[in-house]
Specification:
8 helices, Rossmann fold, alpha/beta, single chain, about 270 residues
């Protein structure tokens, strides 16, 4: 689905030109807070594919953290030995993975028992406004629609994938960020400087017509502008965490092991 070699090149270009990092900065701050709530020291942590220096602030808390940067070969095979890590973190990278179930399974194998995965990725309804505006403009001006915005996993998908990969105590939640811009072109410029422009393999390879771009911007403003004329752009940051299984972790009760009847409890509550 994704041309990861192109993604790598665009991320390097964005870093050289001066990246736009407000989403990454938000994630880094939140990740630091979430790790501070985990009452544990980590001695073998790794940062997986976070773009640029996005999680540099974690080095104070995790001086031994190993950074695994994206490479030009676009490989999704992780360089981790089994049970070699006690923490894997990743910020705004997993949304560009072609085989997310496979990568999660590799992370799970790399974690020591009771090791933690904590990651944030773009998902849900992110950039739904841009997707709708481009689709309407292309249908109107060109009589067809081409892939412009990548499909994103939703919260339930990610939770199911964590369970499928064998993580214990999986948790997911979403942080919705709505950013306002003067126009759609300012949003698209920020996406380029995030290294997050269209890298779909099935993307259109010819330049977009000027008339289509102008109509897209008009439709965006018509549908998604506030009273002051500024447009909205939605980013859903999906947080996911899970632990490598360990005997010390809380276990679900076996079916039929309950000592009290739910029906009886409801009946008593009604009488009260």
């Amino acid at each position: 689905m994704f041309d990861r070699a192109l993604l790598h090149a665009r991320q390097r270009r964005a870093l050289a030109q001066g990246p736009v990092t407000f989403l990454l900065d938000r994630v880094a701050e939140d990740m630091s807070d979430r790790l501070a709530a985990v009452m544990r020291e980590f001695h073998a942590p790794a940062d997986l594919w976070t773009p640029g220096e996005g999680l540099a602030a974690l080095r104070t808390r995790l001086p031994a953290i190993a950074r695994i940067a994206p490479d030009a070969a676009a490989a999704e095979t992780l360089p981790f030995a089994p049970e070699s890590l006690d923490l894997v973190v990743s910020a705004l990278a997993l949304q560009f993975v072609n085989d997310l179930p496979g990568v999660l399974a590799q992370i799970r194998r790399a974690l020591k028992p009771d090791g933690l995965l904590l990651a944030a990725m773009i998902g849900g309804d992110s950039l739904t406004e841009l997707r709708q505006a481009f689709a309407a403009a292309e249908a109107e001006c060109e009589g067809g629609v081409s892939p412009r915005v990548a499909p994103f996993a939703d919260l339930r998908d990610i939770g199911a994938l964590l369970q499928r990969a064998g993580f214990a105590l999986p948790v997911t939640d979403v942080d919705r960020v709505v950013v306002r811009y003067g126009n759609a072109f300012a949003l698209m410029q920020d996406l380029r400087r995030m290294g997050a422009a269209n890298v779909l393999i099935e993307r259109r390879r010819t330049p977009t017509r000027r008339a289509t771009l102008l109509r897209m911007a008009d439709i965006y403003t018509e549908r998604f502008a506030d009273a002051d004329g500024r447009i909205r752009a939605t980013f859903d940051i999906i947080w996911l965490s899970g632990w490598a299984p360990h005997a010390s972790q809380q276990q679900p009760l076996k079916p039929g092991s309950a000592k009290a009847s739910l029906a009886e409890a409801v009946k008593k509550a009604g009488e009260t």
